[in-house]
Amino acid sequence: MPWKNQGGGPWGSGPKGPWGNGPQPVGPRPPDLEDLLRRGQDRLQQIMPGGYFSGIGITLIILLIIAFWLLSGFFRVQSEELGVVLRFGKHVRTVQPGLNYHLPYPIETVLLPKALRVNTISIGMTLIDDPARRGRSIRDVPEESLMLTGDENIVDVDFTVLWRIKPDGVGDFLFNIQNPEGTVKAVSESAMREVIGRSQIQPILTGARNVTEQSVQELIQRTLDSYGAGILISQVQMQKVDPPAQVIDAFRDVQAARANLEQLQNEAQTYANQVVPQARGRAAQIMQAAEGYREQTVAEAKGQSSRFLKVYEEYKKAPDVTRERIYLETMERVLGGADKLVYDGGPSGQGVVPFLPLNELTTKRPPTTGQQSSGGNR
């Protein structure tokens, strides 16, 4: 006899196995789909008297379809998004994050670009997965980073561009450009090459990074605005600016030599700032002393000449008296400070002793240190 008629196979009736009864159901049984459909049909028949295809039933079905169609126009805009509502494919308005409504499809549709998120594009470098480090590492891209400067030098520039969609340019962003990231990257690389090509290598490597970043950002923004891209460039950051790896050691030696040159120039300038004022002070002092000596000499000469002229005027009035006065004043000035001895022997010269003790006749002066008085003068 076949097993299907034995009610459970060769081991007896029911869902049994060779060791007894089969598995028993545990917990509540799931609802039967056919039973649910049957109950739903019964309720619809109760609501719509006369059957599904009566006038009232068809009207209710149409109303339900219209209600579901109208409710399909509700949509939610996330925090980083803006809602762009299109009416028959034309941009009509932009809505902010939150719950919004538009006329149901196909009258109006909505696009949800990430308009409030700041995007990053790296040029000259790329991030790759590194299984050994269990993370991501940076790999240089020479075809993007090597650029020619205005003084015909090569420089390796890696930079990052931060951009986002303009709040009032979402429509331009969606409909005017096809590949936004590729467009921003191409325009950024072109702008950086143009600015580097107008600059010297030394300012780029030392202190002109901020100026270069500002110039590149303005050039990128002007170019994208001319395209009508609806993109706002937030910032340009130069990550690495170095000479090519093949000449970086020689370049560092040149930089060290220039640093030493600047140090020596600063020391020489410091010494000059210290010595030059001192020399100028001494020169001014000498000039003032010479000026004073000149004024003194000229004043003395003028005084002597004035005195001489006055004496000469008196001499012309009374020559004999003036001559005698001059003689007396001169003798007084010459003999005024000397020891004097006057001997008047008379015309006959008698009574003159052969030896005259002049030292005893003159007033004795106290002897100076190491010496004795040598007597008077005749």
Automatic annotation (TrEMBL):
Pfam families: Band_7 (PF01145), HflK_N (PF12221)
UniProt domain Band: residue ranges: 72-255
Positions of transmembrane segments: 52-71
Any one biological process term the GO annotation gives: proteolysis
Gene Ontology annotations for the cellular component aspect, listed alphabetically: membrane
Keyword Aminoacyl-tRNA synthetase: no
Cellular compartment(s): Membrane
Biased composition (Gly residues): 1-20
Key word 4Fe-4S present: no
Membrane-topology annotation of the record: Single-pass membrane protein
Alphabetized UniProt keyword annotations: Coiled coil, Hydrolase, Membrane, Protease, Transmembrane, Transmembrane helix
Entry GO MF terms: peptidase activity
Functional summary from the UniProt entry: HflC and HflK could encode or regulate a protease.
Protein name: Protein HflK
Organism: Bradyrhizobium japonicum
Top-level taxonomy: Bacteria, Pseudomonadati, Pseudomonadota, Alphaproteobacteria, Hyphomicrobiales
